[in-house]
Amino acid sequence: MTSFALAALVLIMLPGPDQALITRNALVGGRRGGLLTLLGGVLGVAVHAGTAAVGLSALLLASATAFTVLKIVGAAYLLWLAARMLWSAVRSPHTPAADEAPVAPRRGAAYLRQGFLSNALNPKVALFFVTFLPQFLSADSGSPRAEALLLSGIFAVLYLAWFGTYIAAIERFGRWLRRPRVVARIEQITGVVLATVAVRLVLISH
Predict the structure, then answer these.
(1) Does residue 27 register a pLDDT over 80?
(2) Cβ neighbours of 74 (radius 10 Å)
(3) Distances from the Cα of 51 to the Cαs of 54, 143, 156, 205, in angstroms?
(4) What's residue 91's pLDDT?
(5) Are residues 132 and 56 in contact, defined by beta-carbon separation less than 8 angstroms?
């Protein structure tokens, strides 16, 4: 359990689309926007964890057509998000706002949906639960499915803890980070990160 927790935490801490999206939404929507994006991400992880536990992810990876469809849909969604954020970055520096005034929050469902879809439509997350997690299952386990769900739960708790702390840090420095020019730069970086991940998803070989 300890070795899995350490390995999972390292993977969670690596920069990627989740970090970029949570950073952006925590700045745009404040703590609420960040936490809703985080909750959506956990729900997306739960989809892959649950399907892996019952063997559906293995079937997905065995089907070239299904895997390709998931790749294309996931990449298209990330590209759509990237385009919106890059466009927002173009407008942000020209939007008058006081340094201490946060950007007007959007509907909470949008943050939740973004966090969920960015994970649920990501075949790399499915690959993680099918290829990485089984390496930590006990050979003499009487119920491998139950053990897989337990490890998935540990992963989800670590995900919540790490990004919850990360959002708190963003709030701590929110006054500076919410300056229009800083927000615009973060929008640019987030857009580029999501677009890069989308291209890499398309290039994943089955």
Answers:
(1) yes
(2) 25
(3) 5, 16, 15, 21
(4) 67
(5) no
Instruction: Identify the CA nearest to 91 among candidates 190, 189, 188, 193.
Output: 188
Matching residue, tokens 């990004």:
163
Q: Residue 47 corresponds to which amino acid?
A: V
- The pTM score is 0.70
With H, G, I as helix, E, B as strand and everything else as coil, classify residue 29: helix
Helix crossing, 64-91 with 17-53: angle to 10°?
A: 160
Give the tokens for residue 66.
Answer: 């299904």
Encode pLDDT of 172-206 as tens digits. 877 766 676 776 777 788 778 778 877 876 776 55
**Distance (Å) of CA 86 to CA 68, 103, 176, 187:** 27, 16, 21, 6
